[in-house]
Amino acid sequence: MEYGICPLSVIPIRSNATDSADMLSQLLYGEHFKLLERRKFWSRIRCAFDGCEGWVENNQIRILPQDTYEAIQNFEQPGYSIDLVSFVTTDAHVLIPIVMGSSVRNTLALPNVFEGASVSDKKDKPNLIKTALLYLNAPYFKGGRTPFGLDCSGFTQMVYRINGYQLKRNATEQSSQGDALSFIEESEPGDLAFFDNSDGIINHVGIIMKENYIIHVAGKVRIDRIDHTGIFNAETRTYTHSLRVIKKII
Asked: Does residue 108 have a pLDDT over 70?
């Protein structure tokens, strides 16, 4: 088994070993992973944080010794950057910009100097909404996990991650976590609401706010009303998503 880490700002994880394949997710700076298969130009990986599997280009990653990978795995308090954009400085005095939610404690593998604010402990539940609002108006980008483009489950995953909690990668997987609530009135700001399509498949997730509002990604990170039926878009005066279940993660 081989291991690796992301030394760049963002690396796409693709469904197949080609640039034209769909982007399943992204690696952010400092995220580590296992290499499941290695070819000349591409490698299939499994992310340590959420178990996401896909293909990355070999010239974008850095190989790690097993003991370094295990040391990173054993960090009790991984640190995440909390500025929209911050920087690390390499030993060649080159600045690398990194985005909010990047891993900045992996100095064993990336001997760069981090310049910016970070968090390393679990935050109280109300802080989830404060973090979510930092992504407001970020555009929808399938597979994305950054303030410059992300999808619905990438958004919820990153908000929880910055506050010290771990969510899986897609909405269906995230819906298996936490405890289900019987009524929307039982929910608190920070709980997750899941929505399904006409086939009953969960394909959307958002974060409950106060007074029957929800923050989610639909074209962009936006705030809409939510009730027992689903998400109501006041601009189009239509329901855009059908409510399936509300989960309490924290």
From this structure: no
